[in-house]
Amino acid sequence: MISRDRREFLRKITGAGAATALFGMAPLRAVASPRARKVLVVTFGGGARDEETFMPDGQENIPHLLTELIPRSTFFTQVSNHGILGHYVATASLATGVYETFNNFAAVPPDHPTVFEYFRRDLKRPATDTWVVAPSNGFNRIGESEQRSYGRGAGVVLPKRLLEAALSSGGAMEYQHLLRDNYETPLYAPEISGNEVELPQLADLLKLSVSDFTGHARNLASPDELSVYVTKELMRQLAPSLLWITLHDMDVAHAGCYSLYIDGIRRTDRLCAEIWKAVESNPEYAGKTTMFILPDFGRDSDLESGGNGFQHHRTGDALSRTTWMLVLGPSARENVVVDRPVQSLDLVPTLGSLLGFDARFAQGRPLAEVT
Amino acid sequence: MAVRDVALLRQLPPVFLPLLLKEIIVYDWRFPAEREELDHQLSYLDALPPGDRQRLLAGFAGLRISPELQSHDWVNQPARFEEDLAAHLWATHQIDAFRAASMEYLRKIDAARPRESLAARRLGIVVVGQGVTETRYPLFRKMRKQGTYFTNVQRDHGVRSLLDVVAARARAHPIPYAHWYIDGGTAETGGEGITAVSYGALAPVRAALLERMQHAIQSGIGGPEALRTMLAELRPEDLGMSGAPADAVLNRFQISVLTEGSGTQIFSTTFVQWTARELWRRAQPLTLFARYAPRQRQRPMNELIADHGDDRQLPDPEGSLVDADMGAYYTWLNQQRLPDAEQSSFLVWFEGHPEALAISPALPRGTESASAIDLKALLDQIA
């Protein structure tokens, strides 16, 4: 029931045509060689429901998606996630194309090669050509697996951690309260050891002084805004070809305050449009960048008695497993809706077909609508 | 109790047994309604012919569990077993099968339960918006089609008159734990027969709990699962509450709200919503009155940096109104999950303002009324 109603509803509000009708008719706007292409993946996290986004009462929360981005995108209305609904393990599954099964709260690498490793090994790309900007300590191992034949992946930037280090370096004051690591277990932050970037290294890479970094942070209202700031600096200074940013503010929903969850969605909506503007205004990216925006998963239904509605994603019900994805840029057709069910695991093989690497361990399939 | 039912327990599937035992262990601290449910569950299981019982529990028996779980010390650590089982079910893609088995089991148990008529029709009352003078937020949006939206409510003595109605119901139906008052701030005087829980009164308990959590984390407790297990084992006296047997049921409940409800320790709006949810689910009262108060404001990152060390907790009335509006909807939904829900009534009122919404078999659905009416008269119509 959920899929049919939801599908028809999403089609109506986007006012878009069906891929089945248009596919194969319109020429691509740009036929770029794989080597010149760039890809940006934005996870619309951590966890938003249709009620607060695409359903009638929720549309007021996503004006940028509805009016600026979706009309220019190919929009997949049924993206399902059959894996573990914890943010780190689910995001790692998005990045490997395999449903990972490790402990969501442990700082461990994914068991399978990541998209960043496929990209670097098959295309012989340097470390500076792919980056992950992530919200919390738990994500610091997401850049690369421990697969013997792979293992060289993306550098991981944890902006909140960098900010805490930068602020603490200025004096004896402790800023650990800023490092609320995640919202699923707000008082717990795993120890980190991995390929995360430390403050001096980031300052050097981005040609950004610690005081500039903290100065900008002092004007930003949330950790996701800081992540987007770091992302734009990475684009400006290093122009990586494969960039992954995980947004997370809306996961404040775990605290049970609906207004804070809604604020998080509205901010994420605004930040997605801001990232796309940064793409279009940067000559290194404009016209050759495909941007994917997708939630890692949804949240529990109000009607699911085992949950508590928007607050968590613990029941594994259909609403918490069913989301959407929009694809913008030269590899996607504008104003097209794809109704057929796809899986979140299809992302990595699709990136492989776009960029020209073989995601050989990934379990999904390339999306034919993105070429 | 476990000794009495030991022959039955031995026949239950290894996934199901620890979960049931966990409930049996805390039997003495449960509400009367929960005890009745557990009694019924055990009697029903015991009376079933072996083949029928096997079929009833086949969904659980079919789950594959790891050798580690099979050798788990679940008798002494049932909460930890539950944590580990949940992680295993998610990792092995069996969570959906477990969920389906649980729902089917509960459905059949519930269908077999003899029903006694309630002493009175259930009444839920929620008061939202304390401290808000003006709002453009579309209140009660999710519930309007279910009831009548009143726009001209006379609100003299508003909260007091609502509490008087609760007190009258408590006098008329003096049943233990059947009439509740939850307050997100400091509770008003309720009345005899009303059990009151308030965020304000639990301030020292919340502080003691947060201190314990911080201490456990700083001493390297070993992850969120271990933290949750530690929380599940807390007793009232560990947090400065009375451990006397007469207070055990209420105090254990209050601790469960603070240890099992995410955000209940920090945000008063979450505290009220979660407490109401748990009371409907567990105590199944006849009357539930929940009043929201402004929660502390969530401070943006730049402000936290600028005001480092300043722990002022400014209130956020407007944000709290939005939280409470959703909380009221959830309170109504949870009320609808109880037996005889179709006969029950519900009122939500925007405190100090003329707007209220009432849902009752006595009122039309999806309508609006601009007639002047006071809260007591409104409750007289629906309760």
Record keyword descriptors for this entry:
heterodimer; A: 371 residues; alpha/beta; Alkaline Phosphatase, subunit A; 10-stranded mixed beta sheet; 12 helices; B: 383 residues; 8-stranded mixed beta sheet; two-stranded parallel ribbon; 16 helices; 10% strand; globular
Q: From the structure provided, what is the oligomeric state, counting identical versus distinct chains? A: heterodimer
Largest interface: A-B, 54 and 52 residues
Strand residue content of chain B = 5-15%
Number of strands of chain A: 10
User: Largest sheet of chain B at a glance?
Assistant: 8 strands, mixed
Would you give the CATH topology of chain A? Alkaline Phosphatase, subunit A
Number of helices of chain B: 16
Explain what this protein looks like in three dimensions.
The complex is a heterodimer of chains A (371) and B (383). Chain A has 371 residues and is of the alpha/beta class. Chain A has a single domain (2-16, 32-355), classed as Alkaline Phosphatase, subunit A (3-Layer(aba) Sandwich), CATH 3.40.720. Chain A is 33% helix and 12% strand. Chain A has helices at residues 2-14, 19-22, 63-69, 87-96, 115-123, 159-169, 199-206, 210-217, 223-237, 258-281, 318-321, 347-355; strands at residues 17-18, 38-43, 73-80, 130-133, 155-157, 242-246, 289-294, 322-328, 336-338, 342-343. In chain A, strands 1, 2, 3, 4, 5, 6, 7, 8, 9 and 10 form a 10-stranded mixed beta sheet that branches. Chain A starts with a helix and ends in a 16-residue tail after the last helix. By secondary structure, chain B is of the alpha/beta class. Chain B has 2 domains: 6-111, no CATH class; 123-203 and 250-382. Chain B is 47% helix and 10% strand. Chain B is built from 16 helices and 10 strands. Chain B has an 8-stranded mixed beta sheet with strand order 5-4-6-1-7-8-2-9, with helices on both faces. In chain B, strands 3-10 form a two-stranded parallel ribbon. In chain B, a hairpin with a 5-residue loop joins strand 7 and strand 8 (356-359). In chain B, helix 13 (268-283) packs parallel to helix 15. The relative contact order of chain B is 0.16. The model of chain B has no long low-confidence stretch (mean pLDDT 92).
